[in-house]
Amino acid sequence: MGRMTDTDAILSAAEKLLDRNGFSATSIDRLTDAAGVSSRTFYKHVGSRQALIAAILDARAKRFLAAMPRTGTDALFAALGDWFETQGANGCFFLRAAREIGEGDARAQTRLTAQKQQTLDLIGDCVASDLGRRDDALAGQILILFEGATHAAVYRGRAAVADARAAAATLLAAAHIRSGAAYA
Amino acid sequence: MGRMTDTDAILSAAEKLLDRNGFSATSIDRLTDAAGVSSRTFYKHVGSRQALIAAILDARAKRFLAAMPRTGTDALFAALGDWFETQGANGCFFLRAAREIGEGDARAQTRLTAQKQQTLDLIGDCVASDLGRRDDALAGQILILFEGATHAAVYRGRAAVADARAAAATLLAAAHIRSGAAYA
DNA sequence: ACCCATGTAAAACGATCGTTTTACATTTCA
DNA sequence: TGAAATGTAAAACGATCGTTTTACATGGGT
Fold it and tell me: Closest Cα partner for A96 from A19, A30, A160, A156?
């Protein structure tokens, strides 16, 4: 891991707390305690609560997309399982941010749609690498599985990802057959 | 619709507000304004904020399960689409309640797991009615689609349900073939 | 040695929260 | 008629929120 600036330390501690305990349930006091800084330095580094959350959303979007492969739908779900293992499974961070901060910050809504579009593109690439051609309809279905695994993992754990992974394999096989491939 | 008591009027107005605007973003003032009652009558009828939310969760669980058919997976997703059309698509109400109220009320967590178990049972019945036999593995996969449609509908609307429905049909067909049925 | 940037600890700010209470008006019914 | 019940409007409560400010310590660079 690279060198961590004060700002990065605050951001990563805050991301963990917000993800675990929720946005509105996490006060500035808790954030400063977790980061080990005073409120004065906190505000010097991040500006405001809204700015902190905006920075966290951007950083997390970049980190998440970097952690996902762009070839192989099965590898994609494996990576999603790894993500939950290391980062925790608390439902989609962006969906929760948009709903909890919501109307107050229109940018959270913008960030949500951007993130979901990027996820759909990612899935489209994985599907294309498996199928040898683009299949937008199938990508849409696998997005449902991706979203479903993300939220079912909150209460079902690893089984949610395993089920989504198996379902994706079945859908891919069916699409492959529809393509006119030889039966195994 | 049956006659509505004061308590019911408060509950249904509150449910709509909480679902639309979120739990922590909806103050008692907003709830009393929407119900058209003073805070004094509000507290006489519902006791406290926690009790209000508990009552709403129970009522909604009963109403949701009553709105879902127990035969036919395709009919199940059709009913889910109707639910979103009439009630709005804001993500799973129980998941959001458990995460937003969270640690404060352990009963919200209990209600969540109960609701999800009942949903899984519901799906198991629908799958069995289609397949002529129980298939727990397939039911788990369709639960993922159900959860995925619920949350993807927030940003994709009806397309999310349509994709989930189509994917469920493919999974069912594949399971039917695995059962040794004749190929169409 | 001294200045200045940078940090902490803690008080203070106005706002808003859930909840209770006070004061008063209206209906219900024996 | 008149008392009990039930309602509203609004003030007040202590707590907590995000944010700013005050007062003070520390350590590196010239």
Answer: A19
Mean pLDDT of chain A: 94
- B61, B97 contact by CB (below 8 A): no
d(CA B6, CA B9): 5
Cα–Cα distances in Å, from B27 out to A26, A96, A99, B39, B125?
17, 19, 16, 11, 40
- How many Å separate Cα A141 from the centre of its chain? 18
Q: Tell me how far CA of residue A177 lies from CA of A71, A127, B39, B96, in angstroms.
A: 20, 14, 63, 39
- Cα distance between residue B146 and residue B128, in whole Å: 16
Spelled out in words, what is the top-level CATH class assigned to the domain B1-47? Answer: mainly alpha
Q: How much is the mean pLDDT over chain B? A: 94
Stretch B27-38: mean pLDDT: 96
Q: How many other CB atoms are there within 10 angstroms of residue A139's CB atom?
A: 22
**Cα A167 from chain centre:** 20
What does the longest C-alpha to C-alpha distance in chain B come to? 67
Give, for A94, the enclosing helix (H) or strand (E): helix A93-100
Instruction: Compute the distance between CA of residue B13 and CA of residue A132 in angstroms, rounded to an integer.
Output: 51
Contact predicate B73/B172, CB 8 Å: yes
Residue pair A94/A152 in contact by the 8 Å Cβ criterion: no
Per CB-CB distance under 8 Å, the chain B contacts of A143 are 148, 152, 163
Q: At what angle do helices B39-46 and B6-21 cross, to 10 degrees?
A: 100
Residues in contact with strand D, defined as Cβ under 7 Å from any of its atoms: A 26-29, 39-40, 43, 48-50; B 6, 36-41, 44
Q: Tell me the per-residue pLDDT of A106-154, one tens digit each, with 9 for 90 and over.
A: 888 899 999 999 999 999 999 999 999 999 999 999 999 999 999 999 9
Rounded-to-integer distance, Cα A41 and Cα A37, Å: 6
Interface test with A, best of B73, B93, B105, B147 (most A CBs within 10 A): B147
